[in-house]
UniProtKB/TrEMBL annotation:
Entry protein name: Uncharacterized protein
Species, as recorded: Bradyrhizobium vignae
Length: 64
């Protein structure tokens, strides 16, 4: 599940970066919509996680 989460976050970032660099209007307006979909998918994956991001951070601090 973490792999999918990372991939959706990466795709979101790439879409926004490419939209900023593009000279085509359709690309500049379409890629942010795709980025929004990727963000929503990542948030849905996070919501399904039995432990939220905060709990994972606390666990990581306990291990360290």
């Amino acid at each position: 599940m973490k792999r999918e989460l990372r991939e959706f976050r990466r795709l979101e970032r790439v879409c926004l970066e490419q939209a900023a660099l593009s000279t085509l209007d359709r690309v500049r307006s379409g890629l942010p919509k795709v980025a929004d979909d990727c963000r929503a998918a990542a948030e849905a994956i996070e919501a399904q996680s039995p432990r939220g991001a905060f709990a994972e951070a606390v666990q990581a601090l306990k291990v360290a």
